[in-house]
Amino acid sequence: MRNSIAVRRKQRQLSQAEVAVLTNVTRQTINAIENDKYDPSLTLAFELAACLGTTVDELFDFRGKRE
Amino acid sequence: MRNSIAVRRKQRQLSQAEVAVLTNVTRQTINAIENDKYDPSLTLAFELAACLGTTVDELFDFRGKRE
DNA sequence: TGTGAATGTAAAACATGTTTGACAAGGAGG
DNA sequence: CCTCCTTGTCAAACATGTTTTACATTCACA
Description:
homodimer; mainly alpha; 434 Repressor (Amino-terminal Domain); two-stranded antiparallel ribbon; 5 helices; 54% helix; DNA-binding
């Protein structure tokens, strides 16, 4: 699922590694999610939203997603 | 993570089985999530919110959750 | 009574998310 | 040039979410 993590992260001048620490996951996890390798867990989604000063609904772009 | 799925589901007079069909998962999955056995995936969280006419942020009760 | 609808639960298999450790490449600045 | 920081990536192990099959309980109601 697409998201605006990279954009918002850069606006706040944070590295992937810093966001990782703030959200209690590894840098690889943040990198994978920014590059759409997989979706975060619901908990991580909430932590990311909090960390980037937004909401889950705004941070992630859910499109009915019929594949 | 706590949520208001059961309440909102009943307001709409839907059974767990009906919500399951609407969100493309099994009845057991809906039951487990309502009873806090585990958290849904981010995708399922969005589908549940859509199905129940609300948002992910309103449907789930995220509390910084330090355990 | 008894039948069907709704819910709770459980184990095994399977799918997806996360960590660990490691390596490569680009840019900024000494 | 050298070094550090940042980002991308990969494979194996591990953790969590989901399905399948199956059974038990309760409630409403014929």
